[in-house]
Amino acid sequence: xxxxxxxxxxxxxxxxxxxxxxxxxxxxxxxxxxxxxxxxxxxxxxxxxxxxxxxxxxxxxxxxxxxxxxxxxxxxxxxxxxxxxxxxxxxxxxxxxxxxxxxxxxxxxxxxxxxxxxxxxxxxxxxxxxxxxxxxxxx
Length: 139
Known about the structure:
Blueprint: E1 2-8, H1 13-20, E2 27-34, E3 38-39, E4 42-51, H2 53-70, E5 76-86, E6 90-98, H3 101-118, E7 121-127, E8 132-135
Helix pairs in contact: 2-3
């Protein structure tokens, strides 16, 4: 099962993990990307995300397919948040189940790196003085 989504509002981590758990799998690997309060010595107060949703979802499904071509995994969930994301809240979760941990861990690393490189989602940092900076992914 591949489950992808772009949402506004908080990501429910427990429900996401419940989607990937499988009786035939001994591993669930997760990545949770959260808003930190600093960047390059500046105080960050929130992030703001925008996305071209139809293309973003298409690319996320392509990543799921690439993962399945490389590793034996059971379930994949990728959820990215758009809109305002306060400090300490999650902007993305990826969860992958597999029979053994190596596959899900390797697939997880590939999935987040590829998502950041090819999915049309843009991040703006907002600083305490209300100045802003659009961030480009280095991937």
